[in-house]
Structure formats: C-alpha cells, structure tokens
Amino acid sequence: MLEEKYVVFHIQGGLGKNVAATAIIKSIHKKYSDRKLIVVSPYPEIFLNNPYVWRAYKLGNTEYFYDDYIHGKDVVILKREPYDETQHILKKSNLIKTWHDVYDLEYNEKDCKPELYMNMMQEKLASSWQKQKPILLIQTNGGPFPKNSQTSNYSWTRDMPPHIIEEVAKVFSKDYHIIQICRENSLKLKGAEIIDYDLSNFDLFSLIKASSKRLFIDSCMQHAAAAFGLKSTVLWIGTHPNVFGYNIHNNIIANPPLGNTKLIGSYLFDYALGGVHQECPYSDIMDIFDTKSIIESVIKN
Fold first, then answer.
1. Strands annotated E in the chain
2. Domains of the chain, with CATH numbers?
3. pLDDT of residue 273
4. pLDDT confidence tier of residue 271, bands split at 50, 70 and 90
5. Phi and psi for 138 in degrees, rounded to 5?
6. Whole-model pTM above 0.90?
C-alpha cells in the first residue's frame, strides 16, 4: 500500500488574516496535488468546508499530530510568517502575493482571492438577519484591543472616527436598517442595531451576505466581503489597501498627516495596530478623512 503524503499549512494571526489565507489554499493544492492538505489555524472552521482541505486543526489543539503526520512521514511543512518578509515590510507586495512568493506558488491576481465555503445550515443564517428595510452594515471598530479594555474606546489606527459614523447615519437611517459592528467599549451609534457581543464567525459572515450596503474599516469584514464578491467601502488609516486590500472594494485612504511625527517605538513597521497615542500624527480628528467622499462611496456601492 502506498504511503500517504501530506502538506501542512500553518497560519497564525487574527480572523481577517485567516480569511485572507484561504486565497492560497487552491494554489497549495495545485502545487501539491498528490498530498493531503492539512491546515492548522486559530480558526479551523473557516477551512472545514473547503474542498481542497483534507483536515483542519485548531492551533494549540493538535493531539498526536507529530506521530500522525510528522515523525517518519512524507510531509511538506508550510510555516513561514509573511509579515516578516521584506516585500511585506516595505509595502511592495499584497499579503496574498507575498504568501504565494514565500512558498513558491503560482500567483494570478484574478484567481487568487479569499474563498469561504458555507454549508446548507450556514447559508440559512443570512435569512435570520432580514429586516423591514435593507441593511447598511458598518464595522466601526476592530483589531487587537480587548473587548473590556478601559484604556481607550478609540484606536486612531483602525477605528472609524465617530463623526463619520454619525454623518453616515443621518444620510441613510431613513431608508436603511443600520447595524453597527464594534467592540464592547466602543462608541455606539444611536438608533442603530448594535452588535458588540460574540457571534460565531459564520453568523458574522452571513450578516455580510444579508447586507445591501457595507462600510468597513480594515478588519475581518472587508476580507470576508471580498470572498463573497460583495463590493464595500473600506477606510484605511494605519494600514494600506495595497498590502491588505482588494480591488473589488472602494478603498478610501486617510489623508496624509501634517507635521513631523517621531516614530520612536517603531521597528520594522510604522504604526502599531493598537493605536499607540504618542504615534498619532494627526492634531485634529476631522483631518483624517473627507466625510463627503465616504458618503458618496456608500451611495454608489
């Protein structure tokens, strides 16, 4: 009997990064078509329905993994961090392309996109979000802040400035049911349905499918919307769409800051995603975005 051959793809990081990682699954399968693909991830449920994945394990819950797949086995290990690659650090390559380059995989921008496969019951979740009016889904906050953190309710590098949320609500509240996705300690939009509690990832993804319009920050929602082919408006402050974004979206980049900010704590990357206060290069929150252009984008999308 022929010995089974394996390829192990190890992923670390947050939900958005793991959704982005689905874009290289098909490429791994193509290169290693004679091997069974095993994914080890903090979010294995993202990969369970993927037809190219043989097994999905939760990071840290890999009992007997070494005996079953490593020791004495014919296996290829893909466990490199794309964030540490030169092209990524210099912002010269999209994350998905960097991942392909790291593992010497064939890259085609048109075909190498995130893919989320939902089973029958997961597909039905979208109907549970139906409202009397079409849904405008807004993700105003995200990233690494603990939900119960009392140090700050606003991260300047990731979060949507509060005045933008309020202006958008004024324009769309009459014709749309507004749902705000945010952290527990974040500023809440009056009159909106607030989701600041834990949802399963596929509950969250089904909400994207149920929405008619979408306004996001750079976080997991914009990655998932790209996977579903749903055009959204995405705001970028401490990160850049050339690295983490998708052409399907209308990506609005923050205005360049004025002045001479000293990045004393920065090493290989400029801004810490947690929004370190001393790194903030803006003197006025109103200077970050042009609210009018954001509203126009949401109207068009």
1. 5-10, 36-41, 55-58, 74-78, 135-139, 177-181, 193-195, 213-217, 233-236, 250-253
2. 5-102 (3.40.50), 127-300 (3.40.50.2000)
3. 75
4. confident
5. -125, 120
6. yes
